[in-house]
Specification:
76% of the residues lie in helices and 0% in strands. With 224 residues, it is an all-alpha fold.
C-alpha cells in the first residue's frame, strides 16, 4: 500500500505530534526536535526517557506511539496508544488517538484491527471524514486480504497427506514370526502324518474284519 493511498494517515500523525509538542518537558522537547528531523530512533529514546521520569506524561506517551509507528514498531506503538486512550477522559482526544492507532495498524496491514479503531473514532466523531474515508479503505483492503487467503486455505486442505512410511520390524520380531511359521508348518506335517497313520490303522482293522467275516465288508463301513 503506497504513500499516496494513505496520505491522510501521515497527515494525521504529524498533526497529532504538533498538538502535543507545546506541552512537553525537556525530554519531550528534544524528542520532538528529533522527530521533526526524521530521526525517529532518537525521538523514541527521548520520549522513553520522559516516561521513565514521569510515567503519567501523556504527551510523551502519545508522541512515543507516533514515533514507533514511523519505525514500523506496530506492536509497541499500539500498546502505547492503548495506554494513552485508557488514561484520557477527553472523548475528542480518544477519538484522535483511535484514529492514529488505526493508521499504525493499517500501515502494518492489520486491516481488521484498523477497522475497529476507525469505527471507534466515528462513534465519537461521526463527522470525521478522514476517519470515514480511511475506514472504507481499510475495509476494501481487508476484503482483498481475505480473498487472497481463501484459495490458499482451500489448497492446503486439498493437499493429501502422504502415508506414513512402513515401520521396520526389528530383528527379534522377525525371528519370532519365522519361528511361528516353522511351528505352523510342523503342526501341519504332524497332522498329515497322524491322519495317514489313522487311515493305515483303519485299513488294517477292516482287513482283519473281512478275514473273520469270510471276506464280507461290514455294512456302513468307512474307507478312510
Amino acid at each position: 500500500m503506497g504513500l499516496k493511498t494513505f496520505l491522510v494517515f501521515i497527515i494525521g500523525l504529524f498533526s497529532g505530534l504538533t498538538v502535543f509538542a507545546q506541552k512537553g518537558n525537556k525530554e519531550v522537547y528534544f524528542g520532538n526536535k528529533a522527530f521533526e528531523k526524521g530521526d525517529y530512533k532518537t525521538a523514541v529514546a527521548e520520549y522513553q526517557k520522559g516516561l521513565k521520569i514521569a510515567p503519567g506524561n501523556t504527551t510523551a506517551r502519545i508522541n512515543l506511539a507516533i514515533a514507533q509507528s514511523k519505525l514500523a514498531q506496530t506492536a509497541q506503538s499500539v500498546a502505547n496508544f492503548d495506554e494513552a486512550i485508557k488514561a484520557n477522559k477527553n472523548d475528542q482526544l480518544k477519538a484522535e488517538l483511535n484514529y492514529d492507532k488505526g493508521v499504525a495498524l493499517a500501515k502494518d496491514k492489520k486491516y481488521e484491527e484498523a477497522v475497529k479503531s476507525f469505527e471507534n473514532t466515528l462513534r465519537t466523531t461521526p463527522e470525521d471524514n478522514d476517519a470515514r474515508e480511511n475506514l472504507q479503505k481499510a475495509l476494501n483492503e481487508l476484503k482483498k486480504q481475505q480473498q487472497k487467503q481463501q484459495p490458499k486455505d482451500n489448497k492446503d486442505k486439498d493437499k493429501k497427506q502422504p502415508p506414513p512410511p512402513p515401520k521396520k520390524k526389528d530383528q527379534q520380531q522377525q525371528q519370532k514370526e519365522k519361528q511361528q511359521q516353522q511351528q505352523q508348518q510342523m503342526n501341519k506335517e504332524q497332522a498329515e502324518k497322524l491322519l495317514q497313520a489313522l487311515r493305515n490303522q483303519e485299513k488294517e482293522t477292516q482287513q482283519r474284519l473281512q478275514q473273520k467275516a469270510g471276506g464280507q465288508v461290514p455294512v456302513n463301513g468307512k474307507d478312510w
